[in-house]
Request: fold
Amino acid sequence: MKINNIIIAENSLENFSGHFFEYTNALWEYLRRSSCVEVLANKNVSAEIQNQVGARPHFSERFWFDPTLPDSIPRKLRRFYKYHTLAKQTAIELEELSQQNEVDSDTLIIFPTAVHNTVKAICHWLIGIKYEKRPKVVVVFHFALKDGDKFNPTTRYYKKALKMISQFGLDKNVYLFTDSYFLKAEYELITNLSLRVLPIPHTHWSESPRRDLNSLNIVYLGNARLEKGFCLLSDAISYILKNSKQNIGFEIQAGNFSGGANCPIRKEVDKLESISQVSIHDKALSSEAYEDLLARADIVLLPYVGNQYKSGTSGICCEAIASAKAIVVPANTWLEAQLHEFGEGESFNEYSAIGIAQATCKLIENYEALENRLAIKAEAYRKYHSVENYFTIMMQEIDET
Reply:
C-alpha cells in the first residue's frame, strides 16, 4: 500500500506526561527517519513538546475535557451532551485537514490513544469524504471497558461509536487496535469488528549487572497512587523484613502527590520514612534518574489493584521485564500474563499487604534460581515490545485488509 504522508493525531498531547507523550514520541522518532510525518497535538501543547516531536497545535479539546454546558440540560443527559460536544469539535478540526488538502487516500492517520468520542468524530469526518479520497485511519484503544467484571458507564458510548464504523461502511478505512489481549476480548464483546493486538512501542530498559551479590534491592516505581497499592507498602515491607532471611533494601518513588497531613499518601510516606531499610524518592525524577533507579532494582513491585488493572497495560511492567528485573504483580491481569509469557517473578491473589508481602518473600527465596533466566527473557521481550514491531504489525494488518 502506498503511504506518502503520516499524521500522528494526539488531541490530549500537551506536555511530557503519560501515554500521550510516550506513544507519540516513540512513533515520531521511528517514522521521521524514512517517512513524511507530522504530529498534531492539543492547542495547549508546550513549546518543549513542539520542539521535541515537531508537534503542531491543532485540537482544542482533550478527551476528558468537561465543556461548559447550559444549565437547562437535564443531569441524566449531561454526559451524552459532553461526549457529543467533544466529538463534534474534533470532527470539525479533522475536517479542517481536508479543507487544507492535508489528507488524501495516500495518508495514514494514527490515533495512538483513542476513546469513543474520537471514533465518533472520525466517522462523521470520513462520511463527508469521497470513498476514493479517504485516508487510512488507525485507532488504538488503551482504556478498559470493565470495572472488575462489570462494564463501566462509558461502554455504551464505545458501542455506539463502533457501530457507526459498520453502519456507514467505514471498516475499509478505519483499523482498530489495542495493546492488550484482555482489552481485545472486552471490546469484541460489544462489536462485530475485530481488533488486532499491537506491542507497546515506547518500552525502555536499563539493564545493569547485579551490584551487590549479598543483598537484593526492591523498587517501587511511578506515581504514588492508591490504585497502585502505594498505601500497602509500609505494612508489606515490614512483613518482608520480619520474615525474610535475605539482606534487603527498598527504594520507593513517591512523587506527584498533593495533600496535607491527613492525606493517605502523606501518611504512608511518613510510615515508610520510619523504616531504616527504605529510601524515599519524593521529588519528580528526570528520565535519567528514573532509568538509574530502574537499573538498581533486582525486584520491581507492581502491587496494583487487580480489578482496576485487569485489562490495561503498564509501561513500568514492560520496562521492568525488558530490563531483566523480576516482578511482583496481581493475579488474573494483563500484568500476570506478561509475567508468565515473558518474565520471572510472582503474582498475588489476595490484595492486601500480607498477600503482596508473601508473594515477594517467595520471590526472594527463589531469586538465585531464576536470576540467570531474566536476561534471556528480556532480550526476547525487547524484540516484541518495540516501535519497529508495532509499526510492522500495524502495516501488515492494513495491507491485508
In short: The radius of gyration is 22 Å. The chain has a mean pLDDT of 90.
